[in-house]
Amino acid sequence: KRSNKWGSSHYIHTLVFRSLKRTHDMFVSDHAKSIAKDDQSHKLKLGVKLKADYSAVLHMPILKEVKDRVYQPVHVFVFSGDDPEYLITGTHAYPSGPGLALTADTKVHRNPSEAGVHSMALALPPSQEAIRTAASVTDIHRHIGGAERASALVRPSIMEGGTTRNSLVRKVPTIPKPQWHPPWKLFRVISGHLGWVRSIAVEPGNQWFVTGSADRTIKIWDLSSGKLKLSLTGHISTVRGVAVSHRSPYLFSCGEDKQVKCWDLEYNKVIRHYHGHLSAVYGLDLHPTIDVLVTCSRDATARVWDIRTKANAHTLTGHTNTVATVRCQAAEPQIITGSHDSTIRLWDLIAGKTRATLTNHKKSVRSVVLHPQQYTFASGSADNIKQWMFPDGNFIQNLSGHNAIINTLAVNSNGVLVSGADNGTIHLWDWRTGYNFQRIHAAVQPGSLDSESGIFACVFDSSESRLITAEADKTIKVYAEDNMATEESHPVNWKPEILKRKRF
């Protein structure tokens, strides 16, 4: 029994000590305690606060109480950022200036004497004549520094470097006024296709342009007269993309039949096929400096092809839905794609990998266009047109107002951005400010339904004086600037509130 008793008491003692140890470990650090104050950072913080909140009264004379209780002005220590230690005393019945240690002179605070009140009353500004003889302590406290505060509104303060600015009035940011652009008008309507005209491209010499259609043909048109020069057949489904090479006499086309073709325009026949896409090919573009072709498809990939060997150099994977548009440029990033998964991807051509993914759009991105002179680009979606800065895709601004599914974008060197939508409307924007200076809704071709008024593609010719659109009413429309228009006859109806943009 004795041994059992001894064993049980030892066990209980062990449990108690364990419980005490746990309690000690739990409460050894008091998390409610304030963090120890660092003197250097505290002085710096209060010095900055002093300069920010009390700069209007720092230049005032400092009064010190002497033994006979008469307040006299003493030496003024001017505040500087390097030496925040200075003295503030006077008739104020509250602690000395922030950030200052109490000294023998400042640790005892007394109410102002009668002599101190009168000496302070003499320092009131001239506008306070009526209360000079009957100024109370409260009045003195209220009016001290009033003259300086009032004059600060009109007196410019001297800044470092000798510049002046108003110390209290902030300059309101101004929205730049948009550049004036002459209006565009319908110049010519070209008929000839038997189906929706889905794609368009202009040759570098500006003599002719080529279109691809849902009637499975590719047609070449004379740019100056609008007459048909040639029809090419070979695709077995809608032709969704065409591109003319700047480096060789080749025409490239792609379609919903999964085929990508290279046409030799000297013989007007197909000389190469590029096999690999698993679904409809929606767009293509040529690299401006190397013999590389990039195509995008409904199979959620973009493929990089060597034009001469027909080799698939890269398969760009990462999008989760149809890749609707692709653009190439000589600078980094060399490939830009837009997809129905609402994202834009900037690709590293050498590695074949994504270098940036832009997720600002909320709906399908169907068109991307590069500015011909600036290092920027724009993307079109049903929610907004957005402008971006290369190389990292930094967001610039939204262009809101084209409330439709935007299928195509085009921009020229004069800063005219064109957006074409599924409902047949064309909006023209000032690139720099995002101001929508013109809206066009051309009538559909006679015999077509009103619903067949979509704009599927648009492009400026090489001179940038003509805008060519490919439309759902089976026509190609050519627009030109109104050379007779002036800024006086067509003023910019500019209102600053129009240009307020969401930035996200």
TrEMBL record:
CDD domains documented for this protein: WD40
Pfam families per UniProt: WD40
Keywords from the named record: Repeat, WD repeat
GO biological process: mRNA splicing, via spliceosome
Superkingdom as given in the UniProt entry: Eukaryota
InterPro entries attached to this UniProt entry: Prp46/PLRG1-like, WD40/YVTN_repeat-like_dom_sf, WD40_PAC1, WD40_repeat_CS, WD40_repeat_dom_sf, WD40_rpt
One GO CC term on file: Prp19 complex
WD repeat intervals: 190-231, 232-273, 274-315, 316-357, 399-439
Annotated Gene3D superfamilies: YVTN repeat-like/Quinoprotein amine dehydrogenase (2.130.10.10)
Residues passing through the membrane, by range: none
Family to which the UniProt record says this protein belongs: Belongs to the WD repeat PRL1/PRL2 family.
Physiological role: Involved in pre-mRNA splicing as component of the spliceosome. Component of the PRP19-CDC5L complex that forms an integral part of the spliceosome and is required for activating pre-mRNA splicing. As a component of the minor spliceosome, involved in the splicing of U12-type introns in pre-mRNAs.
Subunit structure, interactors included: Identified in the spliceosome C complex. Component of the PRP19-CDC5L splicing complex composed of a core complex comprising a homotetramer of PRPF19, CDC5L, PLRG1 and BCAS2, and at least three less stably associated proteins CTNNBL1, CWC15 and HSPA8. Interacts (via its WD40 repeat domain) directly with CDC5L (via its C-terminal); the interaction is required for mRNA splicing but not for spliceosome assembly. Component of the minor spliceosome, which splices U12-type introns. Within this complex, interacts with CRIPT. Also interacts directly in the complex with BCAS2 and PRPF19.
Annotated protein name in UniProt: Pleiotropic regulator 1
Source species: Takifugu rubripes (Japanese pufferfish)
